[in-house]
Amino acid sequence: MDLTAFLDGFALVTEPANLLYCLVGVLIGMLIGVLPGLGPAATIAILLPITYTIDPVSAIIMLAGIYYGAQYGGTITSVLLRLPGEASSVVTVFDGFALAKQGRAGTALGISAVGSFVGATVSIVGLTLLAPLVAEWALDFGPPEYAALALLGVLLVASIGNGGMVKAMISAAIGLLLATIGRDSFSGAERFTFDSLQLSDGIDFVIVAMGLFGVGEILYNLEERHGKPHVPAAVANVWPSRKELKESSGSIGRGSLIGFVLGVLPGGGAVMASLAAYATEKRISKHPERFGRGALQGVAAPETANNAAATSSFIPLLTIGIPANASMAMLFGALLILGISPGPQLVDENPDLFWGVINSMYIGNLILLVLSIPLVGIFVRVLRVRPAILAPITALITILGVYTINNSTFDIFVMIAFGVVGYLMKKLGFEPGPMVLAFVLGSIVESSVRRSLLIFDGDPTGFITRPISGTLLAVFVVVALWPAVRLLRGRRAARSAAAEPAAPTPTRGKADHR
Amino acid sequence: MRHHTTRLAALLGGSALALAACDGVSTSTGGSDETAEYPSGSVEMLVGASAGGSSDLISRAVSQGLSDALGASFPVINREGANGAIAAAEVAAAEPDGSTIAIQNASLFAITPLAVSEDEVTSIDDFDVVHGVSRDDYVMVTTAGGPYADLDAVKAATGTVTYGTTGVGTGAQVSCALLLGSAGVEGEAVPFDGGAPALTAVLGGQVDTACLQVGEAVENIESGKLVPLTVFSPERIEYLPDVPTAQEQGLDVEVAQYRFLTVPKGTPDDVVDRLVEGLQATFETEEYQAFNEQNSLTPMEIPGDEVVTQLEEDKQRYAELVEEYGIDLGGDS
After folding, report:
1. What is the four-CA torsion angle of B54, B57, B63, B65, rounded to 10 degrees?
2. Which chain A residues touch B206 with a CB distance below 8 Å?
3. CA-CA distance, A229 to A354, in Å (whole number)?
4. Residue range B12-31: average pLDDT?
5. In this complex, is the C-beta atom of A337 within 8 Å of any C-beta atom belonging to chain B?
6. What is the rounded CA–CA span in Å between residue A387 and residue A52?
7. Would you call B57 and A336 a contact, using CB atoms and an 8 Å cutoff?
8. pLDDT tens digits, residue range A215-225?
């Protein structure tokens, strides 16, 4: 790392104009993050023409701010309205919404803001020091490694559920089936599309999530609250107490690491990170039964991890010129328009841009944390609104959000259909979480396995002989067999009347997220 | 997963453009009795791809140029899906009055039909082609220090050569498949979801080679991480002057992606003429030319009827070659 260039970058960022662009960027990002559907990629597309006229470094600082600012905003609807706008916020809903119902929405949002700040900052430090090294590592991650990682993810999905394992597995299996809808990306064959072009690219994640979580919840509440007088949820503590912060500090630390490492992987990195962080917390917790019923760690860990992942996804873009997700692709396009080609030479050719952008993120995240404090207080008031008013507004937000994805009314009807499914699931005691997450991971598993087999020329032993995928599969086997092992050990312990507890050890937790 | 883009986005962008274009409107129609001159309102410009890809960026660059030249707003609306077939269907069904236009990709008409079933084929007969825009060439690359140092090494390969593509039924797949087919080498296509993952795979040595669009690969070629084996254009391209074409290396393979402006069939001639006028003004601006260069695009500013002729030729040629080498674009082979 070139220290002078690094410091020059800081000097550049602290110029008043750049600070202003940074503020504008993160503020816009945070606001659009609140509305599900309208994502950072689209926002960057809208603002692209404006950037022609300003200095490239300022432009990229602003656009990057929109991207990571949106990660902060996304939490708010997940916690307050049960509307996860991004796949990486789905696990936040489990405990976040439960906390909100207990009147602890402020605590949940506060802890997310702190976690997001810490996670992002840890990730930026990692980005500053290790970017080229980590980028090389990401290249070793080929289709077989993705296949093994996503498979592990599906297993974790089944285990994080709150209700019965069987119900979680049924729900996940349906999610995997839903992922097969659309044109087969290997053979071009149509699968479950019923000759509809609208379905040829499958169903968008947001449509499924909005339907199952958002609309499903609204329908359920209509029935539940019918006739009951409205009791506004008490919004007691708007900011987490010192004790609560201390309680979550471990989760935030682990979430940061998991997020940084997995975020480097293009495609699905942030989802896997939030999932792995949540599963890790649940496994090492002394009270796993609290998860899904309002465990603070269940919000802190995934929110930290997805912000850390969002930040480290800059690494492939800035060091090898590979956009890791749709928003990064927009930034890639923006850089090209500004006359800068992202790639291996960026750090040498445009050190001011490289370091300017990275250093602006330190400041941007600080701004976001400061902004969060008053905003959390305002947003939690949403919960005081009567359901008769809040429900239609929520419905409107979901419909608007889904429509904006593809400008398609068809998608709205698909979402409503999923809403009915979500309602029925809730009535029957199924959780939508495993279904949504399996839906996201299913397409990764399928395409990665098929891609791997093409590369291996049909020989599946390649999955085991490659070091990273082999290790991941070993972890998979351990995690899958663990309940059985614990059961056996428990029996033996009971027989020998020894009081040895069979709780999983922290070292196992670490193995989970490698 | 599909990417997120919005009509709201387009509307906001459009209104910004409309504000910027107010001057143009007043000067071109001010005082004239020709009130009905095209464009009288905003013109929707559909793109069959997500925001951020080259199709989207090209549409946005042209949209900017058209609104400057013709004095109306041309909001870009992303209607992603099915290689662009969804946007195409919408344009074909739109009112043929110039209020809906789209820059479309040659691959949808010349290559996708080889990979999908009969009733999903989009036909160019449903459109009037206004004008050609630009060409996006393909380059075959391998990782530096990989098993194949140059094209001769590939030609001499005895085992199966794996190649990453940007998806089934894309020009990237056809170019690699035809090249290996004509060299008599066994190839295995590994489709990825777009250029970025395919680039990652070849950089990491997950696949032996990959066919990519020049703009996607050029940075890593310049830094020496990727070795260009060949380009598929009729002559060498400006952005990679040292890379020989496939034809120079004795393989008669020529594949290109090009884009052109289309309107629904039956759009009046005066509307088409105005659009041609606007396009030509756009092509002459410095911003647009710099945009092409930045994105490694070669201008292909030819009249609409020539585009149609070339499309028909290409479609015929690809179909014959695919048949000749027994390539199944859709299948797993």
Report:
1. -100
2. 142-143, 455
3. 57
4. 41
5. yes
6. 45
7. yes
8. 998 898 888 76
Q: What DSSP element (H or E) covers B100?
A: strand B100-105
From chain B residues 233-292, the ones with a CB under 8 A of any chain A CB are 287, 290-291
Buried b (16+ CB within 10 A) or exposed e, A237-259: ebbbeeebbebbebbbbbbbbbb
Q: Which two tokens stand for residue B225?
A: 């991480």
Q: Which residue of B has its CA nearest to A50?
A: B16
Kindly give, in sequence order, each residue whose CB lies less than 8 Å from that of residue A78, ignoring residues fewer than 6 positions away. Answer: A84, A85, A89, A90, A92, A93, A96, A97
Going by C-beta distance under 8 Å and a sequence separation of 6 or more, which residues neighbour residue A32?
A38, A39, A40, A43, A66, A70, A73
Q: Using one digit for the tens of pLDDT, what is the confidence trace for A437-455?
A: 899 888 889 989 999 999 9
Mutate to test the interface with B, among A264, A397, A451 (most CBs of B within 10 A): A451
Asked if A56 is an interface residue toward chain B (Cβ–Cβ < 8 A), one would say no
Mean pLDDT (whole number) for A92-118: 90
Residue type, A274: S
Q: How far is B86 from chain A (nearest CA, A)?
A: 7
Q: What is the pLDDT of residues A36-46, one digit of tens each?
A: 767 788 788 77
- Fill in the amino acid letter for A88: S
User: What's residue A19's pLDDT?
Assistant: 93
Q: How many CB atoms lie within 10 A of CB A496?
A: 9
pLDDT of residue B33: 38
Kindly state which CATH superfamily the domain B137-255 is placed in. Periplasmic binding protein-like II (3.40.190.10)
The correct CATH number of B7-25+41-135+257-316 out of 3.30.950.30, 1.20.140.10, 1.10.150.20, 3.40.190.150 is 3.40.190.150
Of how many residues is chain B composed? Answer: 333
Q: Is the ipTM of this complex over 0.90?
A: no
CA–CA gap between residue A170 and residue B325 (Å, rounded): 46
Tokens of B117: 């079933």
Write the DSSP string, A246-293: HHHHHHHHHHHHHHHHHHTSTTTHHHHHHHHHHHHHHHH-S-GGGTTS
Chain A window 152-211: which residues touch B at a Cβ cutoff of 8 Å?
A: 183-190, 195, 197-198, 200-202, 204-206
Cα B44 to Cα B66, B76, B106: the distances in Å are: 12, 6, 21
Burial classification of residue B60, based on how many CB atoms lie within 10 Å of its CB (0-12 exposed, 13-18 middle, 19 or more buried): buried
Could you tell me how many CB contacts below 8 A there are between chain A and chain B?
A: 207
For chain B positions 58-117, those within 8 Å of chain A (CB to CB) are 60, 64, 77-82, 85-86, 89, 115-117
Could you tell me the two tokens for A7? 């410091």
